[in-house]
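With this grant's support, we have settled on a layout for protein records. An illustrative entry appears below exactly as we store it:
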Amino acid sequence: MTAQTLNSTFDDNKAEAFAERLLDVLNSGAIALMTSIGHRTGLFDTLASLPPSTSQQIADAAGLQERYVREWLGTMVTGRLIDYRPADKTYVLPPEHAAFLTREAAPDNIAAFTQYIPLLGSVEEKIIECFYIGGGVPYSEFTRFHQVMAEDSGQTVVSALTEHMLPLVPGLMADLVRGIEVMDLGCGSGRALNKMAALYPNSRFVGYDISAEAIATARNEARSRNNVQFQVKDAATLEDVGQYDLITTFDAIHDQARPDVVLKKIHQALRPEGTYLMQDIRATSEVSGNLAHPVGPLLYTISCMHCMTVSLAAGGMGLGAMWGEEKALEMLEAAGFTQVEIKQLAHDFQNSFYIVKKN
C-alpha cells in the first residue's frame, strides 16, 4: 500500500478525536495519582467535614503543609472533583462527590482504589524488563501491597460478606450458626475470616496465606478469639484431606503460581458434601468479550503489572486477573468439581461468585 493510498484513507476527524482522548487519559492519570494522595492524607475526609474553606484552613484542619495542599487543590478543581469560589478563595467538596471519595462512603469509596495506580507505577521499570527478558516481579517488590489489599477487602468483601455473599449459598448461614469447619485460602490480612469468626462462634476457621506480613496482621486482629487461626502456607502445598465443610477464596485463585494445583487441593480438602465459594473477576476469557467491561482497561493493567507477573515470578502459569469464566469453569472441572453455579450481585460489576459442590 502506497503512502498516497494511506493518506487518502486518513480520517482527520477520527485522528482529532483520538488525540483528545489521549489528552483525557493524561489528565485522568494525573487525577488518579492526586486522588490517591487525597485519600491517604485524609484530605477528602477533612473537606467533607468543613464549610467552604481556604487552602490554609484546609491544611490546618488536616495537619498538612498549605503549599502542598494548595497545589493538590489545583488538580482537584481543574479536574472537577472539588468546587472553587474565587470571590473568597474557598474550596468545597460537594456532597455528591464526597459520596464516592471519603472513608464514610465505603463501600462506594472509589478514592481508595486509586491507590493501585501509584502502587503499580512503582514497579514499572521492573515490568518493562520482563517485557524483554520474561519472568516476573515478585510480591516483595510491591510496597504497601498488603495494606492496599486489606483496605480493598474491607470495602468489597467484608462489607458485603453477610448481607450479600454468604446468602448466595442456600442454608450456609444457618450452618455457620450451628457450627462448621471453614478454611479461607489466600486469606491476606484475614479481615473476612476474622469477621466470620466473630459472628459465628460455634464454627471453626483457619486462614492460609503465603505472606508472613499479612498473616501477622491477621493474627493481631484475631486477638483472643479461640475459633480462628492463621498460618503462613503456600496454597499449592495444602495437604488437608476431607476436613472442611466450606472453603472460600476471595479474589485469590488467579494470582496463584499453580492455580490448577490449588483447585485440586481445595477439592481434596473439602468433605463429600462440602461447598467451595470462589469469588473472582467477572470477565470472559476472550478479550473481545470484555470490550464493554466498565473497568476492563484497569483490570488488564492490574493483571499485567501484578496478578500475572507475581505468578510468573514464582515460575507459575501467569493466569492473570482476566482469566475469565470459560477458563475458570474448565479448571474447576479439571480439578474434579462436577457442580458449579455462577452468581452475580446486582451492585457488583467486577466479581462473579462460583458456588461449587464437590459431589
Remarks:
- DSSP finds 16 helices and nine strands in the chain.
- Residues 3-103 form a domain with the Arc Repressor Mutant, subunit A fold (CATH 1.10.10.10).
- The chain has two domains: 3-103, 124-357.
- The radius of gyration is 23 Å.
